Amino acid sequence: MTDEKPAREPIAEDARIDALEERLKAAQEREDQRSQSQVKGVDANYRSGNRVLADLLGGILGGLVIGWSIDYFAGTSPWGLLIMLFIGIVVAFRNIIRAANTQPTDPE
Known about the structure:
Blueprint: H1 15-74, H2 79-101
Helix pairs in contact: 1-2
């Protein structure tokens, strides 16, 4: 984790302590690598969740706004709103399903 000096100077005549320090250092390096790989996976999951949320809200709100605009200018209340809301939901779910079926790419 950090490059601190050990609390004591290594004693050359006690091989058990030196072996223990080497094993601890190797374990810390493995733990650092494992935690870094987990962070990348978590970040990818957050990005996927945010994309799903954005697609869902964007489809619904976009359908509502466009449908309300059609109703306001054409005087077809409530049919334009209902039809465009339905189309917005369908488009949102289509985008979510498409995103779920794509293989994730590794940014490395």
